[in-house]
C-alpha cells in the first residue's frame, strides 16, 4: 500500500528549517576546514604573539581534512619557521608554536642558541633591544632575555613529525618537554595578527600584523616589541 505524501505544511517547515540551519553548517565547516581565528592565551610566543592577540589561521595551508576530524584528504608540507596551530600530543589542547624542525632535521638547543643539522643559527640584538633569529627562510624575533632554557640534546625529527619551540623559549612548554608533533595533529598556519593590544602601537598600527615577511621585505617591526 502506497504511503501518503507528507502534507505541504510539513514539507514547508522542513524547508524553512534547512534554510535556517544551512548558513550555520557552512560556517562550522568553513571554520573547521578553511580558515578560523584564535585568541592567544599565553606569553610563550612573545614578542611575536602577545597575550590576547587575535590571529587568523589558514586551515588549508597543510591540506584539506574531513571537517572535525584528523583525517587528511590532501596534504601540503609545512615550512620551517611557520607559526602553527596544533592539538597538543599531551592533552589535546590547541597550542601555537613555531615550527623549527622538519622530518629528517637534527635539532639541538644549548639554552641560548638553536643548532640545525650541526649549524648554529645566528642571532642578533638590534639597537632598540630586540633579539632576532635568522632561521633559514624565516627571520623572526625572540624574547630578548639571555637565558632561554631549558636545553635540548640533539634529536632527529622522525617522518611525519615536527619539532616546535616558543619564541619566548624561557617561558614555553614545547617539544623540549613533550617531544614531537605528529602530522595528524596539525590544524593550520597562523597568517597574521588581526588585532593586537600590545603596548607602543597606535590605533592604526594594531591591525593586521603579518607573521612572516613577504619575499624581499624585512620583518614587521611591530612583531619585535
UniProtKB/TrEMBL annotation:
Q: Give the keywords, sorted.
A: Hydrolase, Protease
Q: Check the record and name the CDD domains matching this protein.
A: S26_SPase_I
Q: Which reaction does it catalyse?
A: Cleavage of hydrophobic, N-terminal signal or leader sequences from secreted and periplasmic proteins
A GO molecular function term, named singly, is: serine-type endopeptidase activity
Provide the protein's localization.
Membrane
Enzyme class name? hydrolase
What processes does the entry annotate via GO biological process terms? signal peptide processing
GO CC terms in record? membrane
Which residues act catalytically here? Answer: 44, 97
Matching InterPro entries, A to Z?
A: LexA/Signal_pep-like_sf (IPR036286), Pept_S26A_signal_pept_1 (IPR000223), Pept_S26A_signal_pept_1_CS (IPR019758), Pept_S26A_signal_pept_1_Lys-AS (IPR019757), Pept_S26A_signal_pept_1_Ser-AS (IPR019756), Peptidase_S26 (IPR019533)
Q: How does it sit in the membrane?
A: Single-pass type II membrane protein
Classification via PROSITE patterns: SPASE_I_1, SPASE_I_2, SPASE_I_3
Q: Where do the Peptidase S26 domain residues begin and end?
A: 22-195
Similarity comment: family membership: Belongs to the peptidase S26 family.
The protein here is known as Signal peptidase I
Amino acid at each position: 500500500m502506497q504511503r501518503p505524501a507528507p502534507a505541504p505544511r510539513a514539507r514547508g517547515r522542513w524547508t524553512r528549517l534547512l534554510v535556517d540551519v544551512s548558513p550555520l553548517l557552512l560556517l562550522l565547516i568553513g571554520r573547521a576546514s578553511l580558515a578560523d581565528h584564535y585568541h592567544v592565551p599565553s606569553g610563550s610566543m612573545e614578542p611575536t604573539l602577545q597575550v590576547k592577540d587575535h590571529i587568523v589561521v589558514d586551515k588549508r595551508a597543510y591540506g584539506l581534512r574531513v571537517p572535525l576530524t584528523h583525517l587528511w584528504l590532501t596534504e601540503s608540507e609545512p615550512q620551517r619557521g611557520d607559526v602553527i596551530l596544533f592539538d597538543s600530543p599531551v592533552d589535546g589542547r590547541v597550542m601555537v608554536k613555531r615550527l623549527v624542525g622538519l622530518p629528517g632535521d637534527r635539532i639541538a638547543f644549548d639554552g641560548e642558541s638553536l643548532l640545525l643539522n650541526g649549524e648554529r643559527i645566528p642571532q642578533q640584538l638590534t639597537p632598540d633591544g630586540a633579539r632576532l633569529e635568522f632561521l633559514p627562510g624565516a627571520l623572526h624575533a625572540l624574547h630578548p632575555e639571555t637565558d632561554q632554557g631549558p636545553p635540548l640534546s640533539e634529536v632527529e625529527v622522525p617522518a611525519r613529525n615536527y619539532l616546535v619551540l616558543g619564541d619566548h623559549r624561557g617561558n614555553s612548554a614545547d617539544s623540549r618537554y613533550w617531544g614531537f608533533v605528529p602530522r595528524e595533529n596539525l590544524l593550520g598556519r597562523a597568517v597574521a595578527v588581526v588585532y593586537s593590544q600590545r603596548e607602543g602601537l597606535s590605533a592604526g598600527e594594531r591591525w593586521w600584523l603579518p607573521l612572516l615577511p613577504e619575499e624581499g621585505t624585512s620583518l614587521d617591526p611591530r612583531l619585535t616589541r
